[in-house]
Amino acid sequence: xxxxxxxxxxxxxxxxxxxxxxxxxxxxxxxxxxxxxxxxxxxxxxxxxxxxxxxxxxxxxxxxxxxxxxxxxxxxxxxxxxxxxxxxxxxxxxxxxxxxxxxxxxxxxxxxxxxxxxxxxxxxxxxxxxxxxxxxxxxxxxxxxxxxxxxxxxxxxxxxxxxxxxxxxxxxxxxxxxxxxxxxxxxxxxxxxxxxxxxxxxxxxxxxxxxxxxxxxxxxxxxxxxxxxxxxxxxxxxxxxxxxxxxxxxxxxxxxxxxxxxxxxxxxxxxxxxxxxxxxxxxxxxxxxxxxxxxxxxxxxxxxxxxxxxxxxxxxxxxxxxxxxxxxxxxxxxxxxxxxxxxxxxxxxxxxxxxxxxxxxxxxxxxxxxxxxxxxxxxxxxxxxxxxxxxxxxxxxxxxxxxxxxxxxxxxxxxxxxxxxxxxxxxxxxxxxxxxxxxxxxxxxxxxxxxxxxxxxxxxxxxxxxxxxxxxxxxxxxxxxxxx
Length: 484
Known about the structure:
Oligomer: single chain
Strand content: under 5%
Keywords: Hydrolase, Membrane, Protease, Transmembrane, Transmembrane helix
Strand order of the largest sheet: 1-2-3
Membrane topology: Multi-pass membrane protein
Structural class: mainly alpha
Number of strands: 3
CATH topology of the domain at 2-15 and 147-300: Rhomboid-like fold
Number of helices: 26
CATH architecture of the domain at 2-15 and 147-300: Up-down Bundle
GO cellular component, one term: membrane
Largest sheet: 3 strands, antiparallel
GO molecular function: serine-type endopeptidase activity
Low-confidence stretches: none
Transmembrane segments: 15-33, 129-148, 154-171, 178-196, 202-223, 230-249, 269-285
Distance between the termini: 72 Å
Shape: elongated
Order of helices and strands: EHHHHHHHHHHHHHEEHHHHHHHHHHHHH
Radius of gyration: 35 Å
CATH class of the domain at 2-15 and 147-300: Mainly Alpha
């Protein structure tokens, strides 16, 4: 049975960085650290055998395991007939037998036995599941937190990371990154604590399942009684249904309780229950008291850009009615409220250019040239470069405008438009100090396009205006190379 939420599409405009980092961390730990466990296991078993411990402990272990597991004669004979390495590994990894062994009077009286055992156990404890796994009967803070980042095998890792991605994507946006991370870790700890309180067993537990179950509980706590979409897979039945999120919590709890009662596999259902309940309560209770901040716009699928789009539509209506004075008057306020928005800059540029509004054009150009995303600004940069060639555009012909225009055009590979801006700068009365360097950059760009005439023009300018400059020498070498 599989029932998972399918309410929010993946929105890569707001990438879940913490979720992706958690997935990366778990994956790196599995392959980079846990990948050495097989060698550690082999060394531990060899240390056990080299210490002569199998001969000392074989009969004691057979008696202990037969009593605990209620083995009949055939089963006991099977265990006794195991290969030396297999039986040694079983004995060494049986922590409950180890606990009883350490309490025996003959073990405590035999220093050689203790030393050999200590060496084998220290070798075994280098295995990831024993070093950082959680053993309820041997409580440790390392295990409490470390077990969340270990996995039993690749399929265990793959399944957990898939569910971490599905639930974490929406929750990280809804709760905020740091609250989400804190609640994730809290759920993992709570999962182990419930296991420790209810069943203090002598087995190692690893996996992010408890923390991920916490994400499932958080999801229900965030949406509450809001009706959301779920995907289900029940044997041959596959599809979607819509229901209040809270209604699914008993279903998930029931599934874990059923698995716990069946107890037919190695799944830690107690940890799942602990994480599920902890995640739900950690979100649901603060939500009821208004103490947990949640992105309600995201939950309601509200477009965070809706106010801007409404303002843009209103501006378009004004332009469509040729109310240019009103549009120009609103321009500075809109630029202040929505800085760096290419769609707004394009519209207000047209208004400022048509009215020769120096103040508005200056505000538009300042934001345009400050845009970090060159591709976003490129269409308007091309338009300004083309408009600069038209008569009567005295505001655009200012050297500062052409200088700020030249650099991004070169960076974008717009050779001919950049050449036009360069000509306007080079012909001005006051040439900027950056001009020789920009001239060389432009020459290299034109050289890539085999524009030899343009390169010659640039080279002649540097020879005449900056004969001693290093850029003049470099451009001469470039010209020679292109002439071959």
